[in-house]
Amino acid sequence: MARGVTTNRKLVFTAIGWLIGLTLFFPILWTFLTSFKTEGEAIAMPPSFLSFDWTLENYLTVNDRSDYFHHAMNSVVISLGSTALGLLIAIPAAWSMAFTPTKRTKDILMWMLSTKMLPAVGVLVPITLLFRDTGLMDTRTGLVIVLMLMNLPIIVWMLFTYFKEIPGEILEAARMDGATLGKEIVYVLAPMAVPGIASTLLLNIILAWNEAFWTVLLTTSNAAPLTAMIAQYSSPEGLFWSKLSAASMLAIAPILVMGWFSQKQLVRGLTFGAVK
């Protein structure tokens, strides 16, 4: 018999949930408000919350100083390209590990996961030298490749977990009907795993969009995405908080909108299996 939950306990949990949510959201709200302040108001003590002269000067300055749409297009190409390339490689890999495992499959999965525990700076020198010698420095192609490699373990793990919940008998029936391996993956497996593939796609677009370490180090201007644009507002003369906040809001706005509209799909794919 299920244990009843009292009204007081519901109120306490609701209050705790709101407190955690507001705490997580507060930095974004503060950045949003600072982006409409002057530089003097941004560093004033005590800080003003709403009682300041709102201005769009910082957004106009960022737009004049930086080519926003060029950086935004680079972010779109790099995040979508690295995710699409990662899915192209990860779907067959996850299928193989889920439906034709060997005694080394778990070891390979754990090894792939362990690579995400390696600090990115640990491979900075070899990747920088490879990019320099192959002409990939400051190119979209180079960033698509490196971000795909960085996120590939997560893509494979997510798809493997999802594929494991699809009954193998369905795929066997498709084979008995004469389906080739390619048709089995494309016409049988993929449609059943659409929620999992969609959530994996969304999560990796967000990860690639927010990646700052590699985008700042491997680009200068041509392939620099929005994360690299933000770094341009850290100058030797000091930080310009208002302009930095305006640049940050312009950088995170597209991914916030995408996350807001896709949150149900993302949560459903991360918490439910394919056949539940």
UniProtKB/TrEMBL annotation:
GO cellular component: plasma membrane
Residue span(s) of domain ABC transmembrane type-1: 72-262
The name this protein goes by in its record: Carbohydrate ABC transporter permease
Keyword 4Fe-4S: no
InterPro entries referenced in this protein's UniProt entry, alphabetically: BP-dep_ABC_trans_perm, MetI-like, MetI-like_sf
Principal location class: membrane
Cited PANTHER family: INNER MEMBRANE ABC TRANSPORTER PERMEASE PROTEIN YCJP, MALTOSE TRANSPORT SYSTEM PERMEASE-RELATED
One Pfam family in the UniProt entry: BPD_transp_1
Membrane-spanning intervals of the chain: 12-33, 76-96, 108-131, 143-163, 184-206, 240-261
CDD domains membership: TM_PBP2
Any one of the GO BP annotations: transmembrane transport
Annotated family: Belongs to the binding-protein-dependent transport system permease family.
Gene3D superfamilies xrefs: MetI-like (1.10.3720.10)
UniProt-annotated location(s): Cell membrane
Leader peptide range in chain numbering: none
Keywords, ordered alphabetically: Cell membrane, Membrane, Transmembrane, Transmembrane helix, Transport
Membrane topology per record: Multi-pass membrane protein
Organism: Paroceanicella profunda
